[in-house]
């Protein structure tokens, strides 16, 4: 019987979680409304003072679609979001236009004016002209001076030559940027693409009406036009650090107070289970059907790493692989697209398969047609992966003749949601089918007495996985990119980084309870508490991705303060590590779960390092102002995405393999090699290559401006190239770990599977 105190604590935690989520998502939507209202306007026309039309709205919107069709964020970036090899096109255009306008403004020196004074006067005039907001809401037109119109035409010609491939002088830059060999645009398409680039640069250098802050809050750092950090950027950064210290102290004090209580209540009331309860499970047909999901996990994992190696090498050769004309078939844009997508796909597949495997085991039976649903979902997954990848390849190779067809079936160009709209909808339907399969299998558990909070948390997080991916359908083919970015980060941050982790945490706790090594009441309180402190920072922490994406300054204030709280739960990782150690080493039979537990322990380590240290390195607005889109972001992304979510996916895979295969015949040598190779290789990759590259780029960004830190001149400098090569040892060690894991999986399946039955004969501890 549960005590009144435990019941009240769980009820109170549910109330805090429910009310908190309503408030947090309410603020998220409220600021989203402001983004809609204050996004940089797309003009009906851009004209010179003499009446010449430089660009039309149709040019800008079509240019955005052309940019998407050739890879979008996978070939350079816009407003700092995208890939790291080619320039940030907004910053690159802005810098080139400022230089061109400054050169065109040169006039003979007046009497008594020194060259230094004249230079200062020209720069002051340049800043006044480029920052002045000449957008007329009535006509929808932007008007620029005739001199600036000439500068714009000069910069436009540079980009037209770069993209249509007609100018031999541009070939070196095409190679440095790793452009596709056969991906040239027509001159007309290239001119429309430049309209989009101009508009993104215009938003980055033009003051908002009535303010002296640009639409992107003075990002990027560009001394020529007076773009430097705003006062708010600095002050909110300092405030976030203070809040972090205060919240960290409060949370650690709370944990210290509760720790003795939790430590004494970790084990089940009747004591630790004396045998492996899950080992007595007889696998149902639908559980057996999940085995092929884990085969796909291995295949996608191997493919992702191979594509990552090729993508990293393009930073050296551009359009080749050790002299081989690899880019003719798989250019950088494609390899990076598939590399980033596969990272999400194999991790998500591991988590989804775990849900399909665990739900019937906990429910005690296979619902009718459960196996059919699992198999249909698997086929759909393969169709989505193959179909979306084929569409992206066709788009980059210019096989789509219609930009609308590209939007639906080709390459959307937005990082992590690159797949065409048709494939997005198909995947969303598949996710809701997965939710239905998990819910119907878990339904019998809800009829039992006690411990329903954990089940409810699993069900709610499963439903949220389907709903939050639907945010990717909230933009259309011609949506303002500032608005698109708002919804994209719902998917990338809230879906990938948020709700999936809640689901995985709840599932792991349920398994620990089912194994008889963790008390139900303690597990429930700890999971609810962890969910509260994680989501309270995580939901509004979405805004730290949107500081400089054409959003109002309120986004910086909220994002800076709340995203600091994302780091707070990671500071008490030692308590969680102790708890897991306590329950994972109490009985002899637990040795068979040693390696799944080891991967879970690695999650804790990389949560602290990859998500915590590397994440907070770039999260404060003043840091991200100089670092956005540099290799400091890649450093955080690799350490957090694989170190946390990838390790968790592998741990869950091994957990399910415990039931699908004969654990007594596992070749533990290969899993041991895989574990240490993956962790050591990831550490080498980050500390020897990505982090030093990012720090050097940050110095260049502060000292010379952001455009220089992303330029081919700097990226292909000897020291940066040396640091790219310094990644090779870590990549080799990491890749060896990947292949070792895949080989372990092959051997495990070859050496025997467990019998299949329609029921699960497993002693059920009281939930």
Automatic annotation (TrEMBL):
Occurrences of domain Nitric oxide reductase subunit B cytochrome c-like (ranges): 43-221
Keyword check for Transmembrane helix: yes
Single biological process term from Gene Ontology: aerobic respiration
UniProt cross-references to Pfam families, sorted A to Z: COX1, NorB_cytochrome_c-like
A GO cellular component entry from the record: membrane
GO molecular-function terms, A-Z: cytochrome-c oxidase activity; heme binding
Transmembrane regions: 12-32, 234-256, 293-316, 343-362, 374-395, 423-442, 454-475, 487-513, 525-548, 554-575, 595-618, 638-658, 670-691, 732-750
Organism superkingdom: Bacteria
Keywords: Membrane, Transmembrane, Transmembrane helix
Protein name (record): Nitric oxide reductase large subunit
């Amino acid at each position: 019987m549960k005590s009144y105190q435990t019941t009240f604590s769980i009820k109170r935690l549910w109330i805090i979680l429910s009310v908190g989520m309503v408030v947090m998502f309410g603020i998220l939507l409220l600021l989203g409304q402001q983004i809609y209202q204050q996004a940089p306007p797309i003009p009906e026309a851009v004209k010179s003072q003499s009446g010449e039309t430089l660009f039309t709205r149709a040019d800008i919107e079509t240019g955005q679609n052309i940019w998407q069709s050739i890879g979008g964020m996978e070939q350079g970036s816009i407003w700092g979001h995208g890939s790291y090899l080619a320039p940030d096109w907004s910053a690159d255009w802005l810098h080139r236009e400022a230089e061109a306008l400054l050169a065109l403004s040169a006039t003979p020196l007046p009497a008594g004016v020194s060259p230094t004074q004249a230079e200062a006067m020209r720069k002051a005039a340049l800043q006044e002209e480029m920052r002045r907001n000449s957008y007329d809401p009535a006509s929808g037109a932007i008007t620029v001076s005739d001199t600036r119109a000439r500068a714009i035409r000069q910069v436009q010609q540079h980009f037209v030559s770069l993209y249509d491939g007609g100018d031999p002088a541009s070939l070196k830059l095409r190679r440095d940027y790793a452009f596709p060999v056969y991906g040239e645009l027509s001159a007309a398409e290239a001119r429309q693409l430049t309209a989009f680039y101009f508009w993104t640069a215009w938003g980055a250098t033009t003051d908002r009406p009535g303010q002296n802050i640009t639409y992107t809050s003075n990002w990027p750092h560009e001394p020529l036009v007076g773009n430097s950090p705003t006062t708010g950027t600095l002050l909110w950064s300092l405030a976030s650090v203070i809040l972090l210290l205060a919240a960290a102290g409060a949370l650690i004090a709370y944990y210290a107070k509760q720790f003795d209580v939790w430590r004494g209540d970790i084990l089940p009331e009747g004591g630790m289970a004396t045998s492996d309860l899950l080992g007595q499970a007889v696998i149902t047909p639908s559980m057996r059907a999940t085995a092929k999901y884990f085969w796909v996990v291995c295949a996608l994992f191997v493919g992702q790493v191979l594509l990552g190696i090729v993508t990293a090498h393009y930073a050296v050769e551009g359009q080749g692989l050790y002299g081989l004309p690899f880019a003719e078939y798989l250019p950088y844009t494609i390899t990076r697209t598939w590399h980033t997508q596969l990272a999400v796909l194999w991790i998500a597949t591991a988590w989804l398969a775990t849900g399909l495997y665990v739900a019937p085991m906990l429910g005690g039976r296979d619902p009718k047609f459960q196996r059919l649903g699992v198999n249909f979902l698997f086929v759909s997954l393969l169709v989505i992966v193959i179909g979306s990848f084929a569409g992206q390849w066709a788009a980059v190779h210019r096989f789509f003749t219609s930009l609308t067809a590209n939007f639906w079936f080709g390459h959307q160009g937005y990082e992590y949601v690159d797949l065409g709209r048709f494939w997005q909808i198909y995947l969303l339907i598949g996710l809701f089918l997965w939710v239905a399969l998990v819910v119907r299998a878990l339904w019998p558990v809800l009829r039992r007495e006690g411990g329903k909070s954990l089940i409810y948390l699993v069900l709610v997080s499963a439903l949220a996985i389907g709903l939050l991916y639907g945010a990717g359908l909230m933009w259309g083919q011609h949506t303002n990119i500032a608005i698109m970015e708002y919804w994209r980060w719902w998917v990338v941050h809230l879906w990938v980084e948020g709700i999936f982790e809640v689901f995985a945490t709840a599932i792991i706790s349920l398994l620990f309870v089912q194994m008889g090594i963790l008390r139900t009441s303690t597990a429930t309180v700890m999971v609810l508490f962890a969910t509260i402190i994680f989501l309270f920072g995580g939901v509004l922490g979405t805004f730290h991705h949107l500081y400089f994406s054409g959003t109002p300054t309120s986004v910086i204030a909220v994002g800076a303060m709340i995203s600091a709280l994302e780091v707070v739960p990671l500071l008490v990782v030692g308590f969680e590590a102790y708890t897991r150690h306590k329950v994972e080493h109490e009985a002899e039979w637990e040795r068979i779960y040693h390696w799944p537990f080891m991967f879970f322990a690695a999650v804790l380590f990389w949560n602290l390092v990859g998500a915590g240290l590397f994440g907070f390195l770039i999260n404060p607005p003043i840091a991200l102002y100089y670092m956005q889109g540099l290799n400091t972001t890649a450093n955080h992304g690799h350490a957090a995405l694989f170190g946390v979510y990838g390790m968790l996916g592998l741990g869950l895979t091994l957990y399910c393999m415990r039931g699908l295969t004969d654990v007594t015949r596992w070749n533990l040598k290969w899993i041991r090699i895989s574990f240490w190779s993956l962790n050591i290789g990831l550490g080498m990759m980050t500390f020897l290559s990505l982090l030093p590259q990012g720090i050097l780029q940050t110095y260049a960004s502060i000292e010379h401006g952001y455009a220089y830190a992303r330029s081919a001149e700097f990226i292909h400098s000897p020291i940066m190239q040396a640091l790219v090569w310094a990644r090779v040892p870590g990549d080799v060690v990491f890749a060896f770990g990947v292949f070792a894991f895949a080989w372990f999986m092959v051997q495990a399946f070859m050496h025997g599977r467990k019998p299949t039955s329609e029921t699960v004969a497993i002693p059920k501890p009281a939930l």
